[in-house]
Amino acid sequence: MENDSLKYIRRLDVEHIKQAMSQSHVLWGEGASLEERTSFLLKKLGLFGPDIFYMSGMISPSGELVSSMKRYYFDLLVDQKKVKAIGLGAIFTDPNKRGKGHGAELIKRVLEEANQKESCQAAFLYSDINPAFYQQFGFEAFPAQRWSLDPRQSTSGQILETREAQSTDLDQLLDWYELGWGAKKIRPCRNRETWSLFREINHLEPDRILINNYMPVGYFTYGWNAVQKTLILAECFVLKGNEQWAFNSVLKLSQYYQAEKIVGWGGSESLFSNLVRIEFRSNSVPMLKLFSEKILKKTNENDFYFGIADHF
Q1: pLDDT tens, position by position, 39-68
Q2: What is 2-144+282-310's CATH number, 3.10.20.740, 2.60.40.10, 3.40.190.10, 3.40.630.30?
């Protein structure tokens, strides 16, 4: 078999990373230059550090990169238990080498290594293709929703003041995250480091603290897509009794940007629940593989939370 002649490389060097970026640029370039994407990835590798994020691949005898993927290490909370997980991302095979099982072989190698040598109890990925491909490796797809809202409407009533969150707010932000999504059986386990890092790699603006009568009552996280004139509400939590005023604050921000649309993923629409249009999305479908079924009791599709701010 041709796969037998390929060499599995656990940690790609910079030259092979550049090859990976060049091969996938047509698919994932999204208007950025190859140089910009490569520079951003190398920066991201430095931000996370070598033990949290790196790339693996399959190399031909001549040294050419055939298949590659990003791998992240983080903790999930599963039934209130912290579980070490590996995240698989940007799985890609050279278009000239497809149809020979190289990508599947790379996935198998990485999953086996994570489970048997690195004590991972779960694997997670976001699928941009038919989830059935990953189901053959034991991944289960969760419903992926997105919502949208036309923000061009007048606001009425009180608008909460906002300010940019500072590093001193991180503990409060983490507490609010627990209040908002702590009951979910499956969700990312956040800490001070991952909170900031994942917001940066997802090109999100600094969190905004919502203030009522000089007291912080919640937060929201957003991004701005200038090309599509879209405000992306990545996450929002507000203490009970402040929902309408927080809604007005987000609307005001969208009007400041002259946004034509506000969008988000399922779980971030609580302020707009009666106004949004919800639909299933076919990209970035969350998929989970548990190496041991014993770590999860019976659950359902509403018992998980993976937001835009957790995407990789």
Answers
A1: 988 988 887 888 889 999 999 999 999 999
A2: 3.40.630.30
Residue at token pair 């969190």: 207
Q: Binning pLDDT at 50, 70 and 90, where does residue 1 land?
A: very low
Percentages (nearest 5) of helix, strand, coil residues in the chain: 35, 30, 35
Q: Where are the domains of the chain?
A: 2-144+282-310, 146-280
Report the alpha-carbon distance of residue 108 to residue 137 in Å, rounded: 8
pLDDT tens-digit series, residues 112-138: 999 999 999 999 999 988 899 999 999
Cα(236)–Cα(9) distance, integer angstroms? 40
Token pair belonging to 11: 């940690």
Lookup: tokens for 236? 């929002």
Would you state the structure tokens that stand for residue 87, as one six-digit string?
């995240």
Query: What DSSP assignment string belongs to 66-118?
Result: EEEEEEEEEEEEETTEEEEEEEEEEEEE-GGGTTSSHHHHHHHHHHHHHHHTS
List, in sequence order, the alpha helices (H) in the chain: 14-28, 34-48, 102-116, 132-135, 170-181, 192-201, 243-256
Q: Could you check whether 2-144+282-310 and 146-280 share the same CATH topology?
A: yes
Work out the percent of the chain whose per-residue pLDDT is above 90: 60
In the chain, the amino acid numbered 225 is N
State if pTM tops 0.90: no
CATH architecture of 146-280: 3-Layer(aba) Sandwich (3.40)
Instruction: Check pLDDT > 70 for residue 299.
Output: no
Query: What is the residue type of 93?
Result: T
| Mean pLDDT estimate for the chain | 89
Mean pLDDT of 193-219: 92
Determine the Cα–Cα distance for residues 145 and 175; give it in Å rounded to an integer.
Answer: 25
